[in-house]
Specification:
single chain, about 650 residues, alpha+beta, 5-stranded mixed beta sheet, 20 helices, elongated
Length: about 650
C-alpha cells in the first residue's frame, strides 16, 4: 500500500523502545533527525552511530532482497570491509532529509576517514531504507554502503609511499650526504663450519678498522639470527664503507660462510664527517614506532640525533597514501584488485642549507683522527661568523663536545681577561708585570706550569709564556664583574640561536678574591664549549662579536645581535700578544706553519688533582678562527697544539 509522509503519531511499545535508543544516541553526541518520530532519518542516524561504535542492535537490517540480517553479522562485515582503516572509523554525517518514494527512502551520507598524517578522505554514499510491515524503517545493507566499489569479501588497505628525503647541504649548496659505495657483510648459514669461531674472527676484524667504528659492531645476536634463518639466506651483519672494508678484506673474505654484496647508501663524505652535528639516518627503530605510530612505519628512514633528528619532519617530507581494495585469492591470501579509491602524492622533503665547508671539515676531522681521547675542533669564518667545521674525536655516538661541552677553558681565557685589563688601562704591552714562581691569595697558592718564574717582564711576555701568577696578581684590577663583562663583549653567555643546541659559556663573576684570581686564567667556576671559545676568538680577530652561524635555510628566528665594536687599541695589543704566543711563546711549535698564526694555549685543571688537566688551543689564521679541545689531554703543547698544526697544514694557505 503506498506510504504517505509524514504519518500521524501512534504510540506503541516498539516506538517507545526506539525513542529510548534515540535519547541514548543524543546523549552520546550523535546527530539525530527531529522531523517526525516515524521518519527514516531516525533509523539512518541510529545506523550511522552503530557503524562507528560497532553495535547495530538498535537498527533493523535487511539485504537487497528483503531478507533480515543479524546486526552482529553486519557490524562484523563493516569492520572487515574497513580493513586497515577499521581502527579509526569514519566520521559519518547525514546530508539533509531522506527522500521517500513509496516504501523506499534514500539518504545521502558523507563518509570522512582520517588517514595517517591527518589526511582527510571524504566522499558521499547513499543509504537506502525500506519501510517494513511492522511499521519500522530498515536499512538495506550491502557492501557498497561503505564505498561504491566494494563487494562482499573486499578489504580497504593502505599503501604508503615515502617522500624523497631532502639533503643537508654544505655552504656551496651541494648535498653533504650522497649515495656512496658500501659492502654489505653477511653470513650464509649453510656455508658456516664453525659459528663460534666465525663470530670471534669477525669481531676481531671489525675492531681492527681504523678509525674505529662508532658504535662498534654488536655480534651478540648473530648466532641466534643464523640459527633461525633459512640455510641459503643472507644474514646481514654490517654495511661497511669501501675504504673500511678494504682494510679487513684479507681477514674476512675467505672465512667459511661469509658473503658480500656491493651496494650504495646515502652517506657523508667520510665516516667521521661532522657525524655528531649532522646525526644519522636509519630505519625506524622500535622506540620511533612506539613514540610516533601515526608518523612512522617499519622500513621508514628516520633522522636520529644532530640536524637529521632535529629537522626530521622537514627533511623527510610527507609520505604518499593510497587507499586500495584487496580481495582474498586462492588460499585466502589478500591480494590487490588494482582499484585505487584515494591517492595523496608523496611530498618531497625540504633541504637544510648549512655553512659547513667540506674541505675545512675534512681538515678538522683529519686533525683529530690520531687523537685517542675525546676531543673537538670548531672552525669559524671570521668575516661572517659561518661555522665551517664541527669535528669530534672518539666518544659515544652522537656526542657533540664541539657544541655541548661545559668545561673550564684554562689559560685560553687569558685572551678574555687580557681584553678586560687592556680596556681598563690596567696593563700595556710593555708594562712590567712580575711573574713569580707562586702567588698566594686568601691562603690559596697559585703556581705556573712546571713551576717556572720569569721575574719582572713586559706583560706581553707574561701572556706569551702563559704566566698564571701574573694574572692572579692582576685579577683585582678587573673588579668583581670585569671578567664577565669582557667575556660578554666576546659573545660568551649569550642567547645564541644556531638552529641546534649549543653551550655559550658561563663566566665567573664576583666570588672571593681567590676565585677571582683563579678565574683570571680560566679556572674557578668559568665553563665554556669549543664553539663558544671559537666564537670569542673570532670576535677578537674581527674586532666585534658576531654570533656564529650554522643554518642558512631555514635561518634561525632569533640570532643574537652583533656586539659593539671592541676598543681598537685593546684589540690591536691583544692580537700582537696572540701572535707572540706562536712566534716566541707556548705555541712556538706552530711558528713554521705557513701564514700568520695567532693563538693561545690552555691547560685546564678539572678536579682537585693538578695533574688532571684538559688541553686547549684557540687561534686563527687568515679568515679562519678555531678552537681545539682535548679532554684529559695534559699539556696543551703535547696534544692540542699538534692537532692545531695538523688542521692548519691541511687547510689551503690564505
Amino acid at each position: 500500500m503506498p506510504l504517505s509522509y509524514p504519518r500521524p503519531h501512534r504510540p506503541n511499545p516498539a516506538r517507545r523502545l526506539a525513542a529510548a535508543v534515540t535519547t541514548a544516541l543524543l546523549a552520546a553526541g550523535v546527530l539525530v533527525g527531529c522531523s517526525g518520530d516515524d521518519g527514516p532519518q531516525r533509523t539512518v542516524d541510529a545506523f550511522l552511530a552503530g557503524w562507528r561504535s560497532g553495535d547495530l542492535q538498535a537498527v533493523g537490517l535487511i539485504d537487497p532482497l528483503g531478507s533480515k540480517l543479524p546486526s552482529a553479522d553486519v557490524a562484523r562485515e563493516i569492520k572487515d570491509l574497513s580493513g586497515e582503516l577499521a581502527s579509526t572509523p569514519p566520521k559519518l554525517t547525514r546530508r539533509g532529509e531522506p527522500k521517500i518514494t513509496k516504501d523506499i527512502a534514500t539518504t545521502t551520507v558523507q563518509v570522512e576517514w582520517t588517514l595517517p598524517g591527518q589526511t582527510r578522505w571524504a566522499y558521499d554514499r547513499e543509504v537506502r531504507l525500506a519501510h517494513g510491515d511492522d511499521d519500522q524503517w530498515q536499512v538495506i545493507w550491502e557492501p557498497k554502503v561503505v564505498h561504491e566499489q566494494l563487494t562482499k569479501g573486499d578489504r580497504l588497505a593502505l599503501r604508503r609511499d615515502p617522500g624523497a628525503r631532502a639533503a643537508v647541504l654544505d655552504n656551496a649548496g651541494k648535498p653533504l650526504v650522497t649515495p656512496r659505495p658500501v659492502v654489505r657483510v653477511g653470513v650464509q648459514p649453510n656455508g658456516v663450519t664453525d659459528l663460534k669461531k666465525l663470530v670471534k674472527d669477525l669481531d676481531a676484524a671489525f675492531k681492527a678498522i681504523r678509525p674505529a667504528l662508532v658504535p662498534g659492531v654488536d655480534l651478540a645476536d648473530l648466532p641466534d639470527r643464523v640459527a633461525k634463518a633459512e640455510p641459503g639466506a643472507f644474514v646481514e651483519v654490517v654495511s661497511l664503507r669501501e675504504e673500511a672494508y678494504r682494510q679487513i678484506k684479507p681477514r674476512i673474505y675467505d672465512l667459511p660462510g661469509t658473503k658480500f654484496i656491493s651496494d650504495k647508501i646515502d652517506l657523508a663524505p667520510t665516516r667521521e664527517f661532522a657525524r655528531a652535528l649532522l646525526g644519522t639516518v636509519d630505519q625506524a627503530q622500535a622506540d620511533d614506532l612506539a613514540a610516533h605510530p601515526d608518523r612512522y612505519v617499519v622500513g621508514d628512514l628516520v633522522g636520529h640525533g644532530g640536524l637529521q633528528g632535529r629537522y626530521d619532519e622537514r627533511l623527510r617530507g610527507g609520505p604518499g597514501l593510497t587507499v586500495v581494495v584487496e580481495r582474498p585469492a586462492e588460499g585466502g591470501k589478500l591480494e590487490p584488485t588494482g582499484a585505487e579509491l584515494f591517492r595523496r602524492e608523496p611530498q618531497p622533503g625540504q633541504a637544510l642549507k648549512t655553512t659547513l665547508d667540506v674541505a675545512v671539515q675534512n681538515s678538522a676531522d683529519g686533525a683529530l683522527r690520531a687523537e685517542p681521547r675525546r676531543s673537538a675542533l670548531v672552525a669559524i669564518r671570521i668575516s661572517d661568523g659561518a661555522v665551517l667545521a664541527a669535528a669530534n674525536g672518539p666518544g659515544p655516538a652522537g656526542e657533540n663536545l664541539a657544541f655541548d661541552a661545559q668545561v673550564p677553558p684554562g689559560s685560553t681565557f687569558k685572551m678574555v681577561s687580557t681584553l678586560g685589563l687592556l680596556d681598563r688601562g690596567a696593563v700595556t704591552l710593555d708594562g712590567p708585570v712580575d711573574c713569580k714562581k707562586t702567588f698566594t691569595v686568601d691562603g690559596r697558592s697559585f703556581k705556573n706550569s712546571d713551576n717556572f718564574e720569569l721575574g719582572s717582564v713586559p706583560f706581553r711576555t707574561d701572556f706569551a709564556k702563559s704566566c698564571n701568577t701574573a694574572f692572579a696578581a692582576l685579577a683585582p684590577k678587573l673588579g668583581g664583574d670585569g671578567l664577565a663583562a669582557a667575556g660578554r663583549s666576546l659573545g660568551l653567555e649569550g642567547q645564541w640561536d644556531l638552529g641546534t643546541d649549543a653551550f655559550t659559556g658561563k663566566v665567573s663573576t664576583g666570588g672571593s678574591l681567590a676565585e677571582q684570581a683563579a678565574a683570571s686564567f680560566g679556572q674557578g667556576t668559568t665553563l665554556v664549549s669549543p664553539l663558544a671559545m671559537a666564537g670569542a676568538t673570532a670576535a677578537v680577530a674581527r674586532g666585534r662579536f658576531e654570533q656564529p652561524k650554522l643554518l642558512i635555510d631555514p635561518a634561525p628566528a632569533k640570532p643574537a645581535p652583533a656586539g659593539e665594536q671592541l676598543k681598537p687599541e685593546s684589540v690591536k695589543a691583544l692580537r700582537t700578544m696572540m701572535r707572540e704566543v706562536v712566534t716566541a711563546g707556548t705555541g712556538s711549535a706552530l711558528k713554521d706553519v705557513p701564514g700568520e698564526v695567532y693563538g693561545k694555549t690552555g691547560t685546564a685543571e678539572y678536579d682537585d688533582n693538578p695533574a688532571h688537566t684538559h688541553a686547549w688551543f684557540v687561534g686563527w689564521r687568515g679568515d679562519v678562527a678555531f678552537a681545539v679541545f682535548v679532554e684529559k689531554g695534559g699539556a696543551s703543547t703535547a696534544s692540542a697544539v699538534p692537532i692545531a698544526e695538523r688542521f692548519l697544514r691541511a687547510l689551503p694557505t690564505p
